[in-house]
Write a structure and sequence with these properties.
alpha/beta; Rossmann fold; 12 helices; binds S-adenosylmethionine; transferase; protein C-terminal leucine carboxyl O-methyltransferase activity; methyltransferase; SAM-dependent_MTases_sf
Length: 312
Amino acid sequence: MSLPGDEAVIATNDDAAQCKKSAVDLGYWVDPFLGSLVRHTSRKLPEINRGYYARVAGIETLIKKFIDKFNGKCQLVNIGAGFDTLYWRLQTSGHKVNNYIEVDLPTVTSRKISLLKKVKELHHTEFVTPGSFTCDMHAKDFHIIGADIRKVHDVQIKMDACNIDTSIPTLFIAECVLVYLSIKDSTEFLKWIASTFKCAFFINYEQVNLSDTFGEMMIRNLHDRGCALAGADACMSLDAQKHRFLESGWDGAEGWDMQTVYANLLPKKEIDRIEKIEFLDEKELLVQLLTHYCISVAWLDKLNVDFSCIRF
Ligand SMILES: C[S@@+](CC[C@H](N)C(=O)[O-])C[C@H]1O[C@@H](n2cnc3c(N)ncnc32)[C@H](O)[C@@H]1O
């Protein structure tokens, strides 16, 4: 069941999916699956499209390094996955994993599941679908569960139903999710992972540098749309982002703001390509946006696998 105030958070999924569709339609990256989940969208501003490109390309670069390191003998848990098409994109690029689990609030997962059932290419014939309305689906290597990560015990029970193995390398991804949770709730969730999994890596994408004037404006704009950033305190700086993991029992953490990722760390050839897609008038606004988002990573390495190769 959703809590009061969840509607605005749930709506952020539609926003993200539509922005991604806008960029995909223009050729920023290839995603033949998204159109089955998001049919219509309006064209977004060039700086929004470029920002989403950096987000998707940055996160995917690290995900593929993780999967390659373990030759796919690993698990992936996509927290607050929304309408993400990552599972199918990884299948297509040859980056299959043993087990892929998506978690989101039941309202979102039930909508996604009902859309998936209508699309032949995305439908899994082996999906277990008890009843016509369901917020959970289980296939051999792909699971979608409707759970609120503020309720760690519920998440644990639902993950057990996905045959999660806490002893093998597990990648957690949260793309614009933790910022909507209070620090108490996100800390509890991160502590649960740290005390449960032996070998885990976390990729977190969300806001950073929220204490400056532009950051304060971002908080105000979202607040005016009914969406409070309850976790803003962990998004004040890259150090605050890293600190939240170290405080929650993780062994190490690292982070980059998206301006650094875009300007210095993504392949120059790709940046040259996407910069030819649309003319960008206001370069300053793009830099402002990119400076206020980041990717942070953290690791738990009780098996001494050494995660140092999973960086930009
Ligand atoms: C901004 S959207 C991002 C969706 C997807 N990760 C992406 O980037 O395209 C945030 C997602 O987090 C989910 N979310 C927020 N709070 C959550 C919670 N407490 N438990 C599970 N999911 C949550 C929302 O329902 C929404 O789908």
